[in-house]
Model the fold of this input.
Amino acid sequence: MKIALHERIRQDFEGRILSGELAPGDRLPIEQDIMADYGCARMTVNKALSALLAAGLIERRKKAGTFVARPKVHSMILDVPDIAAQVRERGQDYGFRALAHAVRQPLAGMEEERLLAGEGALMQVDGLHLANGVPLCVEYRLVSVAAVPDIVEADLHNMAPGTWLLQHVPWTEAETRISAVPAGEGEALHLQLPVGTACLSVERWTWRGAERITYVRQIFPGDAYDMLARFGPSTAAVR
Amino acid sequence: MKIALHERIRQDFEGRILSGELAPGDRLPIEQDIMADYGCARMTVNKALSALLAAGLIERRKKAGTFVARPKVHSMILDVPDIAAQVRERGQDYGFRALAHAVRQPLAGMEEERLLAGEGALMQVDGLHLANGVPLCVEYRLVSVAAVPDIVEADLHNMAPGTWLLQHVPWTEAETRISAVPAGEGEALHLQLPVGTACLSVERWTWRGAERITYVRQIFPGDAYDMLARFGPSTAAVR
DNA sequence: TCGCTTTTAATGTATATACATAAAATGAAG
DNA sequence: CTTCATTTTATGTATATACATTAAAAGCGA
Done:
């Protein structure tokens, strides 16, 4: 008996819901009954059900009771680890080669760049992620110098700016766009692919609160990289 | 004062962490001190901190204390709504046109198909998702008849099998793989694209408990469809 | 200084209790 | 039969308390 009682209760109901024994719309026993079943206090039951509520598995209405939720939008959790960490996890040797590295003003007319820069300048870092010396991904990145002044001092020739940022400007929020694009001349050259090869494009805007931190565009050969995601009602428990 | 005290405490610390005031690795006050600050019981503080723990914002170690978590893997929530719902949300007219529709045995040698079928047969449904009559996506789907017997009776000529499944087989878990592929001859024909055009491929295996439900492969023109995802530490609150 | 044991300070779990809140169910008045 | 007030019931929040668990820190002997 290493697992806590409230956790066991939670798992029991999660299992019954996932297995379909308890279908959406079905009513769960009231806290008093569950508490009698397990021979515990109501607070313990409440803790278990609160976790299921937070995970979106159930809905609760006062007086009416507790019901299995009807899944509407299946949101899934996409793990987006640092590329360096990901490569090393596969047992490969990771490397980063900078292609361009400059501090500049936002280009006139580029509203996105101006918003990112704020009152300050932009740092542009383009580079290649390498796995065992083989190019895995081309990356184009812009960082707001106003938001992250330390970036100009950082040595980014061998370290990906994303890795550096992750360690220095954590807990940001982000928006990611994934699409498929044909390899342009630059990508074709760096990734050693024919022009027009289907590639995966991952664009990400990152900010902290209202302040914009960075924009990055990564191009992967389509067959060399998959985004893998798992989802389910137990998303909260994944971590 | 409509919001609960434990919720207010949770939000306060979430805000301090997001703003950077509390950086990763920083130590939070011990429960006793927080409890004194807010003039409440320890259980109330504990509930607030438990929520932050579940959200991955903090780490807690006995005797040592509570610390702001160092974000390693940024997990982000990818909303994967039903394509039909998504199209209608954009104010467009949704349609589905079946291209193939058959019940068959798993192909010999295809281990994946045999696993999906289990003891029974497979239902294969290929079709086109249309937005305002324009092909948006080609879909190849296999459904386990053993797991979802009702599927053979369903009228899937105008309704996407995914939509039908979502309504009849809820609370499933899934794994999704996103990659970029060149359009094959079939996709080129149906999506009215040149062969080789960069397309987004979304593959998904779905199961309930140990039972496999369905496998689907969707091919989108790369420039016509983006997967959009937002993430941040407050993922748990998104629901 | 090293390695071992003991102490101690923090979180983790659970209980019993109390009152608040919201909404379904009931019942009374018209 | 309808409408509105009342009661009832299930969840929501909060408290005070107790003991378990764990790992850091302190103490101590060789």
Residues 5-18 of chain A form the longest helix (14 residues). Confidence is low (pLDDT under 50) at residues 233-239 of chain A.
